[in-house]
Structure formats: C-alpha cells, structure tokens
Design brief:
This protein is of the alpha/beta class. It has 2 domains: about 210 residues, 2-enoyl-CoA Hydratase, Chain A, domain 1, CATH 3.90.226.10; about 110 residues, no CATH class. The protein is built from 16 helices and 10 strands. Helix 1 links the parallel strand 2 and strand 3. Helix 2 packs antiparallel against helix 15 and helix 3 runs antiparallel to helix 14. The longest helix has 18 residues. It is globular and about 60 Å long. Keywords: Hydrolase. GO terms for molecular function: 3-hydroxyisobutyryl-CoA hydrolase activity.
C-alpha cells in the first residue's frame, strides 16, 4: 500500500482467520490521514460479514510506535484553508472510534511505542488493549490548542480519582503501568514477545485468552504514588483554582504540573476541564463523541489550533502565542461556545 493509507490485509491460517490492520507511515510515526481512516472503516465493515475473519489485530509499522495521532502538518494547512476537510476528518474518525468500540468480533490493539491522540481512538476502545515497556500513551491536545477527543475525554473522565484531569490539562504522558492504572490498556506484553503473540493470535480461537497467556506483570504505575496531591489539587472547580492549589501544595511535581498547565492553551485547558466533568455524566461513548465533535469543530473557528501546531510541529519554537493569552482572559461564555450545539456540527451517534 502507499505511504498515505493504512495497509489492510486478511491473514488466513488453516481454518482460522485474522484481519490485520497495519498503520503504514513509519517515517511519520504512522500519523493518520483521512485516507487511512476511510480505508480502515471499509475493511472493518467488510470483515463483519466475512466468516473467514475471526478477529482483528491493529499494529503500527516500524519500531517507534502505533500512531502519534492525526497528521498535524496536513491539518494545519487544511485549517488555514477553511477547515471543511478537517471537519470531515473528525466526523469519519469519531464514527470509526465508535465502530471499534462496539465491533462484533474480537478487536486486539497493540499499543507498542508512541500511541497518542488519534492512535488512542483506534486502540483504547478496542476489546483487548496491549502495552509494552516501550509504550508512551498520551492525550496531548491542550498543547496544540485542541481538547482531548476520539473518545479520550471519556477515558480520562473515568480514570481513578482526578488522574484523568491531571493528564488532560497537562498533556502529560503515561508509561505502561500508568496506562493500565488509568484504564487505557488491559495487558502488558514485553516487546520481545510481540512477534510470538501475533503468530499465536493467527491460530487462536480465543484472542483474549491468548493475549492473557502472553501477558506479564507491568512495571509500576508512577501516578499511583501521586494520587494524594493530584486528587486534592485537581478536584477544584476552576482551572485557576487548580493551578493555585498545585503551586501552593509544596510538592515539586505539583509545581511542575502547574507550569505545564499554564504553558498550554488557556482556552483549551478550560474547555477540557468542562468537557471532562460533563463526560463523567454521559452514559455512552457515543454521547461523548458527539460532545467532542462539537468542541473540535468550534476549535476550528479559533486561532489557537493553528498557532499550537505551528509552535509544536511546523516551526518547533515551542513558543505559542495563545489568544486569549491567559486563563483569566478566557470567559465562561468562551467555554460555553465550545459546548453548545451548533447546526451542522452534530455526529448524531448518541
């Protein structure tokens, strides 16, 4: 397959069959294009009725990771041109995320290496989610002026205590132990056993049991020992109060977290806090994806997304000029605009 699409193939072994989805842009950390989304969707739709395919396995080409998220360079150019293509990308991506979550056949995702943003959407809603010692898991959207999406706000909202709020506002990464703790993964399999596991899955009639048989105890979760200050600080009602608690806690890691929050888009972190609190009360992934689609489409009308991608990916100066510039400049009305229903910006999944 070409560099701009996902390689999708069906692997048959004896009487069994394994649908293989391989994200195949290793030089771009397998970042997602719209063509990849539509290719994956077409394959999954076809495999539902294909009796040869007993299970689906998602992997990424190369040694660096499953998927770093959306192709941000392409998104930057498209949003500058008006954003209609990005709206369509979000729409098809979120609908694919919903399909994966309710897929009628076992769906196994190997989150080896970097798995962020859109990569989370393809993997963390699947039936069996695997991390390795090389896994780096994150929802880093607030760093580029966006809000956690692809169902990530649901995962963050249901993480233990306020761990998800911490991860969402700071854009911090998780290792394998923290990914398991926070509900983003199910099993830890050492990378040296991955090839053996894939071979076993091709012959397996019970993918979940096969993965469990290859799993080992995960490294310790680093966030587990930080719950006291995280839960106390991030339980506040506003981002300003969260930052104040972090700075006054006397915990060095808390001060570092405050600096991360303050470096991210003020609008994005405020909308993220509101979205996570609302996501806790939404009962289905589909309802959360509907909310995320409204928020993402609203972000296309502002300037922070373009500026965040410019600073982090295009120019790489890491000095975004956010608008508004500070938390106090972001009003309740600004946040409400992202959450309010808008004609044409509804997925209709819920």
């Amino acid at each position: 397959m070409g560099a701009e699409v996902a390689e999708v193939r069906t692997v048959l072994d004896g009487d069994g069959g394994l649908g293989r989805i391989v994200l195949n842009r290793p030089r771009a950390l397998n970042s997602l294009t719209h063509g990849m989304i539509t290719t994956i969707r077409a394959a999954l739709d076809e495999w539902i009725a294909d009796g040869r395919v007993r299970a689906v396995v998602l992997t990424g080409a190369g040694e660096r990771g499953l998927c770093a998220g959306a192709d941000l360079r392409a998104m930057h150019d498209e949003v500058r041109a008006g954003g209609a293509g990005t709206r369509a990308f979000f729409r098809d991506e979120y609908r694919l995320n919903a399909l994966i979550a309710r897929y009628p056949k076992p769906f196994v995702a190997l989150m080896d290496g970097i798995t962020m943003g859109g990569g989370i959407g393809l993997s963390a809603h699947s039936a069996v989610r695997i991390v390795t010692e090389r896994s780096t898991i994150a929802m880093p959207e607030t760093r580029i002026g966006l809000v956690p999406d692809v169902g990530g706000s649901r995962l963050l909202a249901h993480a233990p205590g306020e761990l998800g709020t911490h991860l969402g506002l700071t854009s911090a990464s998780m290792g394998p132990g923290d990914a398991l703790l926070c509900g983003f993964a199910d099993h830890f399999v050492p990378s040296e056993r991955v090839s053996e596991l894939l071979d076993a899955l091709a012959r397996s009639s019970d993918p979940a049991a096969t993965v469990a048989a290859h799993a080992e105890p995960a490294p310790p979760a680093e966030l587990a020992g930080q719950r006291d200050w995280i839960d106390a600080c991030y339980a506040a009602d506003t981002v300003e109060e969260i930052v104040e608690r972090l700075l006054n806690s006397g915990v060095p890691e808390a001060k570092e977290s405050a600096e991360l929050v303050l470096g991210n888009s003020p609008t994005a972190v405020k909308v993220t806090l509101a979205a996570l609190r609302r996501a806790r009360a939404l009962t289905t992934l589909e309802a959360v994806l509907d909310q995320e689609y409204r928020i993402s489409c609203a972000a296309l009308d502002g300037r922070d997304l373009i500026e965040g991608i410019r600073a982090q990916v295009i120019d790489k100066d890491r000095s975004p000029q956010w608008s508004p510039r500070t938390l106090s400049d972001v009003t309740e009305a600004d946040v409400a605009r992202f959450l309010a229903p808008r004609e044409g910006d509804e997925l209709g999944l819920a």
